[in-house]
Amino acid sequence: MTNYIKSECYRTLRTKWVYGIAAILSGLILLYHLAVWLLAAFTPDFRYGTASFSYSILVAQPMIYCLAAFLITAVLYEGEHRYGACKNAVAYGISRTSIFLGKCIVSLVTCFAILIPVMAVYIASASLFLSKGGPVTLQDLLMEIPAVSLVAVSALVLGVFVLEAFERNIIGILVWYLILFGIPKVLILLSMKLEFLSSAAFWMPANFFSNDFSPQMVVRMSECSVIWDTPLGMAKCLAAGAIGIFLFGILGILALGKKDI
User: Fold this and answer.
1) CB-CB contact of 161 with 248 (8 Å)
2) Which of 83, 103, 138, 166 has fewest C-beta within 10 Å?
3) What is the model's pTM?
């Protein structure tokens, strides 16, 4: 598995889109903050020219990290089935379990390599161009990253599994979205009528991170309350992520290990 991971890392480092995504995202973020700064400078009653509002875009939507992780993974392994890369690796004696775990590790490293410069540009440009003040602070944004980290990793592991399990990427994308967002939404709606489902529903990240459903997540122009503000809330975020990694990891190992070449 080590050799497989090394070869995938080498392939990723030689792939221009990795640097392209980081550069494009950083450029768009910089342009956005410049545009907001100009609007605030020439429009005295413009309400959104604050770093607080910029931070709130990410703080109010923690699941965006899961979407980003899946997007990067999907682009990284787009065309695997088309070009038969996985079949070639299996033919060389690499087990499907090793391939699955290797892809998870390489995808995770790639995501972090993109996340670090993008977030640095986001924080630096918001702090430099936009005015201070407001309910959402830089600490809220910085603490969001560890809070959502394991949940995002679980989404990545699930993404690797569905993309590997289904020949057509579109089916894998739909299954991933259904598991991560569709089922939690259905469960939370059912819990409004069936109270015994409430506990299970609020252990799903898409629900307890939601401004619409979770009483612990209130991010608005006038106030900010986030689930990771308390030790118990942070522990819940990390525990839910760890459970997701374990469940999706076991599912991937067992299901892909039995899949025919």
Assistant:
1) yes
2) 83
3) 0.92
